[in-house]
Design brief:
With 298 residues, the chain is of the alpha/beta class. The protein folds into two domains: 236 residues, Phosphoenolpyruvate-binding domains (TIM Barrel, Alpha-Beta Barrel); 50 residues, no CATH class. Helix content is 50%, strand content 14%. It is built from 14 helices and ten strands. The strands form two sheets. Strands 1-2-3-4-5-6-7-8 form an eight-stranded parallel beta barrel, surrounded by five helices. Helix 11 packs parallel to helix 12. The chain is globular.
Length: 298
């Protein structure tokens, strides 16, 4: 695809959201009905999962199924797809990397990241296949991963997701409605992501039909600094895009903050306005503009 192609602008604009997705929707890599719906899904990035979603005895067949389905998609659809591969120490990792390079999917998702070598191997493999622009997300979802996340997230990743379910299982704890049991780890991961300058994708909500709970968790994740969230159902993806996009009220207030700073006003609605609030308002408006351009370019 070149700048003269009609779809180039849309592809390039779409890539901006794929690099920092609001919604990362996981789909089982062997579920043909769900895979065939990918072109109509609203998630910023769709992850075809060859890891947790696939039983060990079905790994090889799932890889072939995924190849058969994705081979029928056009480049615009492929540009929104990533594949979650199995761990490097598995028997499937190398073949799955080769499949991703062959299909030209936009991204790789590496689960349970605990060492930087796997990122290097994945990046080198994609480069040898001419896929130098492959986006690589890593999953921090273990005790060792959280402990070492500041080092791991500086290894050349494009983004990270926090896997609360695996983390708390290894801790021997229990998931609760308010999520306080994972708050420390959740905060560590987003802090490490910000220091590394990469996208930060928040934990999943497994109660897929409880949208109120999902929205509340998304609001908390955004408040912590996450830029997007794992989704396990298409309805969650729609709610996620809203939660991680500036609201009309936020846009209006940000515009007022910037306007007040230009006129020297230091109080707005009874609250102090200084440089930090202007920076936050400027960043929010830039995000709003980016999303508007992407929607207009599609």
């Amino acid at each position: 695809m070149t700048p003269t192609d009609p779809t180039f602008k849309s592809y390039e604009l779409n890539s901006l959201l794929v690099r920092e997705p609001r919604s990362m929707l996981f789909v089982p890599g062997d579920d043909v009905p769900k895979l065939t719906k990918i072109p109509s899904l609203v998630a910023d990035i769709i992850v075809a999962d060859l890891e947790d979603a696939i039983a060990p005895h079905n790994k090889v067949m799932a890889r072939q199924t995924l190849k058969d389905v994705l081979s029928r998609f056009d480049q615009m659809t492929i540009s929104r797809i990533a594949v979650r591969v199995n761990p490097m120490e598995s028997n499937y990792f190398e073949d799955e990397l080769l499949l991703c390079g062959e299909l030209g999917v936009r991204g790789l998702v590496i689960p349970k990241l605990e060492n930087v070598e796997v990122v290097k191997v994945a990046r080198q493999t994609m480069s040898r296949m001419g896929r130098t622009d492959t986006i690589i997300f890593g999953g921090i979802e273990s005790l060792a991963g959280v402990r070492d996340c500041f080092t791991l997230l500086s290894s050349g990743l494009s983004g990270v997701y926090f896997g609360a379910e695996d983390f708390i299982e290894e801790m021997g704890g229990q998931r609760t409605h308010d999520g306080l049991e994972v708050l420390y780890a959740r905060s560590q991961v987003v802090l490490a992501a910000k220091l590394a300058g990469i996208a930060a994708i928040d934990q999943a909500v497994t109660a897929v039909h409880d949208l109120d709970r999902f929205q509340a968790d998304a609001v908390q994740g955004r408040a912590l600094g996450y830029t997007g969230k794992i989704c396990l159902h298409p309805a969650q993806a729609l709610a996620c895009n809203d939660a991680f996009s500036p609201s009309p009220a936020e846009v209006e207030r940000s515009q007022r903050i910037i306007a007040s700073s230009e006129t020297g006003v230091q109080l707005l609605d009874g609250n102090m306005v200084d440089a930090v609030h202007v920076r936050a308002a400027t960043r929010l408006l830039a995000k709003h503009t980016q999303i508007a351009e992407i929607k207009g370019g599609k």
